Each structure stands twice: as structure tokens, then as C-alpha cells.
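Design request, C-alpha cells follow.
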């Protein structure tokens, strides 16, 4: 007759009251929270950049042209040259001390602070980690690691305040692909867009107030620059454009400013088709031509500073404004690991964990 005795309890494992003596340790049941960001190359050399760009630009949420038409162009022409240019851009912002991109550094720190906040609320029952849609740490490896640690329920949080198919949907797709390959799937929830959450809007407003107070010359206009998507996405049902416009309006109202004090624009456009506009790089030049000498730019769509903000905005877009006759250009940093931003993320997480903790 088989005898059953409790399995000795050890940190991170649960006691099974009716398990046989030789039953392997079982992790305690936990709830997992995964913060998901866009991604980063592992290094700035040609092959690291090529691997990263190939994964990014092969995602049909990002470029939805037919594969038979897009892949030969991408692999044979675009990726023969673009890794050199992108590598140069990343080298200009690279975290030399940690040998990683700023996005990775910031996302790790955000995760640490969120983990501390959740531990204070729920103790060891909630495990927090982060992943990248492209590059490392990969979504698949992180979700599998969390499941192995006992996470039977996972809250998956794409760090994109405004929903867009190439960002939020793509991150969720990757999480679901992992579930498709697991024998035992954890229950999973995805966090919806938080573009109008009061704490997120207030954190944006606080960052603007601080940047304006520190500016030597007060900016005349604040440009809210969001990452771009093709214009047809709007007619195909993507709510991104509308959510960006609402974030701008809510930010203006939180600051108590007049209608024309904040203007919306879109950056990072490529390819021949029409994109949401106006394009930030052209819009800031037009502001200079109109006689606006002092402007500021903020990026409400990015939860962490990255190549699109540190290189594209602070170099290319800044240069466009100054070359057109502008005099002072103020960049308002992303919310990054600011305490009010972490409080906003925790408020969103608390709401989405309802019934699980």
C-alpha cells in the first residue's frame, strides 16, 4: 500500500497534504504580473541590429504587407543597409556602463519599483517580471519562467498607454503564442489601454510643469508627439488616433491651458503610404516658420525613453526646429520610473487584479 506523507515545505514551494513522499516539490500558487515593452537589440553591431530589425519588421502587426512581397524586399535590400544606420543611432544613446539600451535599463527599474509596490500590498503572492516583444528578455522565456515559479494566473501588461495594433496587439499576440505551446496554460488577463487614467494624465502634467519650470525660456507651444501608424489603420478600426487625441486634450485640461497651447503630431514614419499626421519633424519646422521660437516636445505614447525619443526627438526633430529658425527646444522626458508614474501603473494593476488577490 502506498503511503502518503506531507512533502517538506521549503521556500517557494507548497505543502501537498496527500502527496506521496517522493512527490517532487510543487511551487506555491502565485499570481504573476508581466510588464511588456517594445524591445531592444542586444548590441549595436551589424548582426545584432539585423536580428532585432528582422524580428521587428517581420511582424505583420507592424508591416502588414503580404509576406511574399515584403520579405524579399526586407531581407535583401532594407536589412542590407538599415542595421548600419540604426546601429549608429543606438550607439549615440547606449548605456555604456550597463552595455544595454536605455529602454532595457528603464524597464528593469520600472519593474523593480512596481514589484516593491505590489509586495507591500500583497506580500509574496504576486511575482513581477518584464519582457520585450522583440529581443530579450523574450516574452516566451519570461512567461515560462513565471509558470515554473507557480504563477497559475498572469496579468500581462503592455506598457503602451494608447492601444495600437502594432504595439499593444502585437505584444498580446506574442503572449498568446506562448500559451498555444504550453500543456498547462495559466489563466491570463491583458491590461487595456490606460490613455485616460487620471493618475497617468496627472503624471504627464507633473512632468510638463517640472520641465517648464526648469526651462530657461518658457516654451510657447507643447507638441505631443506620438509614434506613427498608417492612416488607413484608423478606417480599419484601430482606435489609436482617437486615444492619442484624447490624451492630449486631457493633458491640456489638467494643465489648465488654452486649446492651442498643446498640439498633436506623429513621428517615426516610413514607407510610401500616407501616415497619421502631421509629421512631428515637419510640424516643428512649420512652427518655427510661423515665428514660434521656443517649443517643447513630449512623448505620451512611450512609457520609457528609447531610441525614438532620445535619438529621433532630441536629435532629428530638434535639428529640424532649430534649422527652420527656432531658438530653444525643450524635451520633456518620458515618465520612466518617476514615482507618480509608478503609482499610476500600480493603480492600473490593482484594478486589473480584482478577484485574483
Amino acid at each position: 500500500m502506498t503511503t502518503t506523507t506531507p512533502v517538506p515545505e521549503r521556500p517557494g514551494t507548497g505543502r501537498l497534504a496527500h502527496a506521496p513522499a517522493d512527490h517532487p516539490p510543487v511551487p506555491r500558487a502565485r499570481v504573476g504580473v508581466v510588464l511588456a515593452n517594445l524591445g531592444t537589440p542586444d548590441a549595436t553591431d551589424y548582426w545584432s541590429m539585423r536580428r532585432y530589425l528582422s524580428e521587428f519588421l517581420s511582424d505583420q502587426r507592424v508591416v502588414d504587407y503580404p509576406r511574399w512581397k515584403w520579405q524579399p524586399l526586407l531581407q535583401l535590400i532594407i536589412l542590407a543597409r538599415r542595421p548600419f544606420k540604426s546601429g549608429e543611432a543606438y550607439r549615440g544613446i547606449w548605456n555604456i556602463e550597463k552595455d544595454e539600451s536605455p529602454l532595457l535599463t528603464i524597464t528593469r527599474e520600472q519593474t523593480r519599483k512596481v514589484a516593491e509596490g505590489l509586495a507591500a500590498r500583497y506580500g509574496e503572492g504576486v511575482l513581477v517580471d518584464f519582457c520585450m516583444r522583440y529581443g530579450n528578455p523574450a516574452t516566451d522565456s519570461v512567461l515560462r519562467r513565471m509558470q515554473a515559479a507557480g504563477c497559475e494566473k498572469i496579468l500581462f501588461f503592455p506598457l503602451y498607454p494608447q492601444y495600437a495594433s502594432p504595439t499593444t496587439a502585437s505584444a498580446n499576440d506574442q503572449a498568446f503564442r506562448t500559451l498555444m505551446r504550453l500543456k498547462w496554460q495559466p489563466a491570463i488577463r491583458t491590461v487595456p489601454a490606460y490613455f485616460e487614467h487620471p493618475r497617468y494624465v496627472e503624471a504627464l502634467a507633473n512632468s510638463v510643469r517640472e520641465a517648464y519650470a526648469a526651462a530657461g525660456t518658457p516654451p510657447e507651444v507643447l507638441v505631443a508627439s506620438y509614434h506613427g501608424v498608417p492612416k488607413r489603420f484608423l478606417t480599419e478600426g484601430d482606435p489609436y488616433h482617437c486615444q492619442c487625441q484624447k490624451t492630449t486634450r486631457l493633458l491640456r485640461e489638467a494643465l489648465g491651458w488654452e486649446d492651442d497651447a498643446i498640439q498633436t503630431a506623429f513621428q517615426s514614419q516610413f514607407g510610401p503610404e500616407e501616415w497619421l499626421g502631421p509629421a512631428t519633424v515637419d510640424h516643428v519646422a512649420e512652427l518655427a516658420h510661423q515665428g514660434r521660437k521656443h517649443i517643447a516636445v513630449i512623448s505620451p505614447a512611450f512609457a520609457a525613453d528609447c531610441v525614438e525619443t532620445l535619438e529621433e526627438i532630441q536629435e532629428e526633430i530638434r535639428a529640424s526646429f532649430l534649422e527652420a529658425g527656432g531658438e530653444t527646444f525643450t524635451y520633456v522626458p518620458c515618465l520612466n520610473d518617476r514615482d507618480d508614474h509608478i503609482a499610476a501603473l500600480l493603480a492600473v494593476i490593482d484594478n486589473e487584479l480584482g478577484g485574483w488577490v
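Comment from the thread starter after seeing the answer: thanks! Residues 67-91 form the longest helix (25 residues).
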